[in-house]
Design a protein that fits this description.
CATH topology of the largest domain: Beta Polymerase, domain 2
CATH architecture of the largest domain: 2-Layer Sandwich
Radius of gyration: 20 Å
CATH class of the largest domain: Alpha Beta
Low-confidence stretches: none
Distance between the termini: 47 Å
Number of strands: 5
Largest sheet: 5 strands, mixed
Helix content: 55-70%
Structural class: alpha+beta
CATH superfamily of the largest domain: Beta Polymerase, domain 2
Strand content: 5-15%
């Protein structure tokens, strides 16, 4: 939970910039409790129309601020995109937040709606999606075998992320990008008593990454190359 000073600052910003806002939420790291020295305030604002939808970055009260300004229609649009890519960015900004402003009950309603969608998790991988992930990871493993130096590092940095996405989405968990992806794998480990986050990061810095990738692939049939086929969608 964000402290009252930050919440007051965020409310003041919303009041100054968007006096006609119907609702506003403060989310992100300051609400999760893992904010660092360079963290920003993630504020989502609900309007009835223009200037929404738009994203805006600024500094306010000594804090960097990311503003996500939406209508209900645009919130739903980006939440649907979250579902498509299995990365609940918009849903978490609202669903895992504190309400700053709620003029008509919409703030609380959308918070609970998006929170429920986050808890429900993503749709399962289709057979084609699973095969494509296995095939992509297999090719990266093959490329890594002969790679050295910077080339190895470049391949490994992609490989750990694709393997992590298979681990998460194959088990019905949300995925992410960058530090958000590592945070999701860490949460998976806590829930399942595993050590994939540490193993992937150790492998990225050493030569053990393929062993961990094969461990992740194993429940889904292992590496896939021979016989892979995927129809094009035109």
């Amino acid at each position: 939970m964000a402290d009252t000073v930050l919440m007051d600052l965020a409310r003041q910003l919303v009041d100054e910039l968007y006096p006609d806002a119907r609702a506003a939420w403060l989310g992100g790291s300051v609400v999760r409790g893992d904010a660092g020295p360079t963290s920003d305030l993630d504020i989502t604002v609900l309007l009835d129309g223009p200037p929404a939808p738009r994203r805006r970055s600024l500094e306010y009260g000594g804090w960097p601020v990311e503003l996500f300004v939406h209508t209900e229609k645009s919130l739903r649009y980006f939440a649907d995109k979250d579902h498509d890519r299995r990365q609940p960015t918009m849903m978490r900004l609202v669903g895992e937040s504190v309400v700053l402003l709620d003029t008509d009950g919409t703030g609380a309603r959308l918070l609970y709606e998006f929170r429920a969608e986050v808890v429900a998790g993503p749709r399962p991988l289709s057979a084609d999606e699973l095969d494509l992930l296995r095939y992509t990871i297999t090719n990266l493993v093959d490329d890594l075998a002969d790679a050295t130096g910077d080339t190895r590092l470049a391949i490994a940095s992609v490989l750990w992320q694709d393997a992590a996405r298979l681990l998460l989405t194959g088990a019905g968990h949300w995925s992410g990008t960058g530090k958000g992806l590592l945070r999701e794998v860490t949460a998976y480990d806590v829930a399942h008593g595993t050590d994939h986050a540490a193993a992937l990061m150790t492998g990225l810095r050493s030569t053990d990454l393929v062993d961990e990738v094969d461990r992740i692939l194993a429940p889904y049939g292992g590496r896939l190359f021979d016989g892979f086929e995927l129809a094009a969608r035109l």
